[in-house]
Task: structure prediction
Amino acid sequence: CHRSRTKDEL
Amino acid sequence: MNIFRLAGDMSHLVAILILLLKIWRSRSCAGISGKSQVLFALVFTTRYLDLFTSFISAYNTVMKVVFLALSYATVYLIYMRFRNSYDSENDTFRVEFLLVPVIGLSFLENYSFTPMEILWTFSIFLESVAIMPQLFMITKTGEAESITNHYLFFLGLYRALYIVNWVWRYHTEGFFDQIAVVSGVVQTIFYCDFFYLYVTRVLRGRGKMSLP
Result:
């Protein structure tokens, strides 16, 4: 599945 | 950052503050599930491990520190400061029934098999079920104080606003975080029956509300 981008969400 | 995510973070902060101030001012944690609060502290701990390794923005760092501090302060008040008012007879949800599947799933379904990524995935899955002990406790005690209902309302609202944020980000920047979205939808669904009761009962000033 998608590799999540930088974790910019809390 | 978009208005939906900012509103979601603020709603989350309001929820945590409502609970903390309620316990502090009433000097009692009756009706509050300590297990859920421990699970939330665990969610923040496993999710914010990158607090010192990656800097996103001042807002991001400040909010992570605030959420960690407030969640541990809440756990401290429940299990240490006001432990004699902790209702352990009614806070009996078996958290191992949550932790085992969540741990298993985070090893199976993740973006990469690295400690940071697995812990982040664990925190996402755990957050979606962390409120279960609290909801279970309310069904067991038969009712929740209105302040607890406001806490649950803002806590449920926060992830619902995040879902709107994900729709917005998908259409504006093609951002899509499958694990977070699926888990966030599940989490919000758990609040649906509560939302219905909250709107039909609590907002009509009936104060006490009992989940079915």
Remarks:
- Chain A touches chain B at residues 1-10 (CB under 8 Å).
- Chain A is about 0% helix and 0% strand.
- Residues 1 and 7 of chain A are 16 Å apart (CA to CA).
